[in-house]
What does this fold into?
Amino acid sequence: MVTEISAAIISDAAGRVLICRRPEGKNLALLWEFPGGKIEKGETAEECAVRECMEELDAEISVINKFGEAFHSYGGRKVHIIFFSCRLKKGEPVNKEHAEIKWASPEELAGYDFCPADGDIIKRLSGKG
It folds into this structure.
């Protein structure tokens, strides 16, 4: 079974993207990722990205387009992540459940320890892939 996940690559006016550090006690604890989560039954990937950003960050986003996809296996757990380019529609992100959130320029992304499934997306965003 593959877990379907949606992730939002939220860019600000300066071209930075929002990254989130996974909390302690969860799988892949303290690794960086883009906000998002599991797609619920009857929900589109785009709707999931919007819902997760509201739940995790109290931020309303608009999805611009699909940026890419990743398939990855963490031991016996397989994930399929759909990444979307997004913009803030309303609100400023608030850290409600992550260890940390921050804005980073695309060039800085390679300096963060991201979840392995995000590797190709990081390369594309930083212009190295």
The first strand starts at residue 2 and ends at 11. The chain is about 15% helix and 40% strand. The CA atoms of residues 11 and 17 lie 4 Å apart. The chain has a mean pLDDT of 94.
